[in-house]
Amino acid sequence: MQLKLNKAAIIHAKRATRKYLNNEFRDKLSQAQISVQLCALALLFAVIASSVIILFRLMLVWAEQYTHSEATSFSNVLTDWRSYLPLIGALLIWLLSLLGSKRYRRMGIAYVLHRFKIHYGKVPLQSAAGQFFQALIALVTNFSVGREGPAIHLGAVSASVMAEKFKLPDNSVRIMCASGIAAGIAATFNAPLAAVLFVFEVIVREYKIHYFFPIMLSAICGAVSSQIVFGNVHEYDLINVIRIPLDHYPILLLGGLGLGCTAALFNHSLLKVTAKGQHWPLIYRLLIAGSVTTLIGLVLPQALGSGDLAIHEAISESPNLWFLIALLLGKMLATIAAIGFGVPGGLIGPLYGIGALVGAILALVSSALFPSISPYVGLYTVIGMTAMMGVCLSAPLAALVALLELTNDASIILPAMFVTIPAFLVAYQGFNTSSIFIKQLEIMGLEYKVAPMNQGLQKKGVRVLMNRRFVVVNDDDELLLEVLKRAEGRPVLVRNADHQIEMLRLEIQSFEDETTLSRHLMVGLPDSATLNEAYEALATKRAGEVYIYRNTPNNVIGVISWANLLQEIRSGQV
């Protein structure tokens, strides 16, 4: 008897759980509101995204043990096989690209931004393998690319694919994608707050409270994962940052102007190379990038890699001004060649290297005129890193917080803010500079703009607005009129002989005292769709209804009319 009761209780619990997941749970996720359900899913998917990024970092650390060059003299560099790694890497990246379909070759931050804006953050799973291994090869073979590119792409793929597996509403899939990106960045740099701000400034490009908590939880998960495996490490906390006196700020203003000019030059050069090589075969682009990187590495090996070697030279004791200038030119050229010709990887690492060199050069030049500046070279270096990232990526707040977390020193905040403002004004107004990612999207012909009203409609799922009180009948002329009379104002749907759904209406003829039944074929939308899909289906006629189904078109669960949709738009909630 007890066994039967337990079995019945289990069956009842399963039914209740299934009912909750199919109804109340999906209803809650369809709303543009913060919820425990949304936060729990974001945390679950962040664990998966963080694990992928940690695996990527572990493989990178392991591979770099065998590719790090110990050569010091020029003759040793020429004979060391590691000096030619960029050419080997270019060939390996090309061979890997041949294994997958051409439609999944696009990768990187600009591509993720396109998928986030136009496709609700749904990044194809097939692109993940190419991004993982090609970016790993690019980093191992000393191309001037950063780690955040694969982190953002892999984080977005991990979270969005899991969201689609769970069949979440599309508006929630977009939030999960943003959360996965935050987890990926935080797991890469151990900078959770910078990850949150980067997602809002660069990817989401707006602030909504129901986005904030899932993204913040995911960033926390990514940072904790990084600390568990690699320790609580702040990558640039060894940079000697000394609080600068207020009487030095006029010099910082001049430094901001120089940084703005450098950032504008870098942006325009990179985008020009990107546009030039856009239509060239991939093998040509990769070989050019590999050749340029190899040649630069033979002369200036410190210009290669993500940017750590350049930063080390910038903060070294008694750096040579002319060497830093040559290293800056080499680093910029290597980065433009790699990113511009399509080597998979990020841009933040190289920008840190370039910014550090510019900051150190400005400090050395200024110290020749004002010797009191000499002790503050470390601060100038960090300020240069902040300004270069902020200006080039159009993410000043994320850049500021990132360096704050990476250096673990709050004294950089005020001078970095002071320098970033003139740098932005010079670059954006003086040289007409704009975000690299937006310009890359335009060059590649990928959409990213969404009208404000459509963007607002995309934030809510159809389950929020659908009318659940309706009647579905089979096609029977004798019963239709009777059913319509008894429907008491509820929508009456007819399933015709072709298993299509039609809306039944009772129309009164103005010239005769008669009523006739009319039918109108309806468009069906899955319950994972957003209000924007309903709007696009009805906007051409500005009338009618769409039916909402669960899993298959035969399982109708709701109806949305144009009148209800228009009322929602005019309510001010969209």
UniProtKB/TrEMBL annotation:
Highest taxon in the source lineage: Bacteria
Primary location recorded for the protein, binned into one broad class: membrane
Compartments (UniProt record): Membrane
Coiled coil: none
Keyword tags: Chloride, Chloride channel, Ion channel, Ion transport, Membrane, Transmembrane, Transmembrane helix, Transport
Pfam families per UniProt: Voltage_CLC
Record-annotated membrane-spanning stretches: 38-63, 83-100, 175-199, 211-230, 251-270, 282-300, 321-343, 349-370, 377-404, 410-431
Name used for this protein in its record: Chloride channel protein
Organism: Shewanella aestuarii
Upper lineage: Bacteria, Pseudomonadati, Pseudomonadota, Gammaproteobacteria, Alteromonadales
